[in-house]
């Protein structure tokens, strides 16, 4: 192990909990009411549709993660498949999106915090900043400690959600599900686009692949296992929320008559009264903090990997000698996180992150196709994604279809991220790298030239 290597300290259970922790957050505690406003009770189907669109990317990424068990995840795979320009766009965009999602989680918990703590509205942002600083410190202190705490927190939250769902089964009013698809089939598709980000965490665990024990075995199991558990949990919990809550409260119970930001608590009040509201609100605060922790843990590995590839300054690739964590990358991520909490209306701009996540997931499917077609010796995965290439083609096209439902502003925001990332590459990274990626290998092969665009960097 060299000074810049990370410690492989995460087993299957904490790895799976990191993945689930990145999903147990706004997807359950905030987004159901926003989805309900788009689709009515059929928001339940929207969560299933979103999971179906995410699955090809999860399968593709599970394969690529076992071939390249290094930090970087999305960035690494798209860079090695499609070249450093696309890698830079994917790395910066995925980092940006995940930091936004973490900021959204910490700010979003304020709505739940107000339901049980005597905290004035004006102080909520300061509470979020304090929790954000704690999350950053935890991630600097060590991945094993962060992963262990994540495992404990997520286990407790899942237990609470299961108890909520089981109890709801005895109190649900079946009339709440009729009419079912109040906005038709396109309403379900639109809602699926908005709740898509709920599943984004399933592949983020690949960004800490370098810190996972036996990655060829544990990464696919953690990613696919966590997605299976969370799909069932989402459908069960959202179904309980719809069955327990007043439709009027779900659609207009939020600030300024918008959709409720506390749908879990709305349903809990019906189920268990005041105690239920407090119980769920505490779980929400813990879960959203956990989601932010998983987000910082995962997103900070993007600058680390890009620095190692000379696409970002070398200081971001430095590993702390004491804690064996990418300290500078974590601190940069933390600084952006805290700035967003303090100065940006994160809840509105979270849609931009969701739009880019859909785009990145779509291109992850193309990355796998490029690796398979290139068939270079350095690409040797321990896990093979089934259904190739039809599963990947479906994931790519379905992702683009959902993206069209996000609205003009999120799409423009995604375009802005692409342009800014491309400028970063041309101004800094282009002169420092000669990689071509698997796509370049295919082009060179058709010209009769020998080139392994993936292994070239490792040989330098």
TrEMBL record:
Cellular component terms (Gene Ontology) = plasma membrane
UniProt KW Endoplasmic reticulum keyword: no
Q: Does the keyword Transmembrane helix apply?
A: yes
The subcellular location is: Cell membrane
User: Gene3D superfamilies, from UniProt?
Assistant: Amino acid/polyamine transporter I (1.20.1740.10)
User: Where is it mainly found?
Assistant: membrane
> Entry's Pfam families?
AA_permease_2
| Bilayer-crossing regions | 12-36, 42-60, 81-100, 112-140, 152-172, 184-202, 223-244, 271-297, 328-347, 409-428
Q: Which GO terms describe its molecular function?
A: transmembrane transporter activity
Q: How does it sit in the membrane?
A: Multi-pass membrane protein
- Give UniProt keywords alphabetically: Cell membrane, Membrane, Transmembrane, Transmembrane helix
Instruction: Specify the protein name.
Output: Basic amino acid/polyamine antiporter, APA family
Question: What is the scientific name of the source organism?
Answer: Halorubrum cibi
């Amino acid at each position: 192990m060299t000074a810049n290597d990370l410690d492989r300290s995460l087993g299957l259970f904490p790895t799976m909990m990191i993945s689930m922790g990145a999903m147990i957050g706004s997807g359950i505690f905030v987004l159901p009411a926003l989805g309900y406003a788009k689709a009515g009770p059929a928001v339940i189907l929207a969560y299933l549709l979103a999971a179906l669109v995410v699955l090809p990317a999860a399968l593709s990424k599970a394969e690529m993660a076992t071939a390249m068990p290094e930090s970087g995840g999305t960035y690494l795979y798209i860079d090695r498949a499609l070249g450093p320009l696309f890698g830079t766009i994917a790395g910066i965009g995925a980092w940006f999106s995940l930091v936004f999602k973490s900021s959204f989680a910490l700010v979003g918990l304020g709505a739940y915090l107000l339901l049980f703590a005597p905290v004035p509205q004006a102080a909520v942002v300061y509470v979020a900043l304090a929790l954000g600083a704690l999350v950053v410190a935890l991630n600097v202190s060590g991945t094993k400690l962060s992963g262990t705490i994540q495992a404990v927190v997520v286990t407790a939250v899942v237990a609470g959600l299961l108890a909520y769902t089981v109890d709801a089964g005895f109190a649900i009013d079946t009339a709440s599900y009729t009419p079912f698809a109040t906005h038709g089939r396109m309403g379900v598709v639109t809602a699926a686009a908005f709740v898509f980000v709920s599943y984004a965490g399933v592949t983020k665990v690949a960004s800490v692949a370098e810190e996972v024990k036996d990655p060829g075995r544990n990464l696919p199991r953690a990613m696919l296992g966590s997605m299976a558990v969370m799909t069932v949990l989402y459908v069960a919990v959202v179904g309980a929320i719809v069955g327990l809550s007043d439709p009027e409260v779900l659609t207009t119970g939020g600030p300024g008559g918008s959709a409720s930001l506390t749908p879990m608590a709305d349903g809990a009040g019906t189920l268990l009264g005041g105690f239920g509201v407090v119980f769920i609100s505490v779980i929400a605060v813990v879960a959203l903090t956990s989601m932010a922790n998983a987000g910082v843990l995962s997103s900070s590995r993007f600058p680390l990997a890009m620095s190692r590839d000379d696409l970002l300054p070398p200081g971001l690739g430095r590993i702390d000698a004491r804690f064996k964590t990418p300290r500078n990358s974590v601190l940069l991520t933390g600084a952006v996180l805290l700035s967003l909490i303090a100065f940006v209306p994160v809840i509105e701009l979270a849609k931009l992150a969701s739009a880019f996540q859909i785009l990145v997931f779509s291109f992850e499917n193309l990355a796998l196709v490029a690796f398979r077609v290139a068939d270079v010796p350095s690409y040797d995965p321990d896990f093979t994604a089934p259904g190739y290439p039809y599963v990947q083609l479906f994931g790519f096209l379905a992702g683009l279809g959902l993206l069209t439902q996000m609205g003009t502003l999120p799409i423009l925001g995604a375009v802005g991220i692409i342009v800014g990332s491309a400028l970063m590459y041309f101004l800094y990274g282009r002169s420092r790298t000669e990689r071509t990626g698997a796509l370049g290998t295919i082009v060179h092969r058709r010209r009769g030239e020998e080139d392994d665009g993936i292994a070239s960097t490792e040989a330098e």
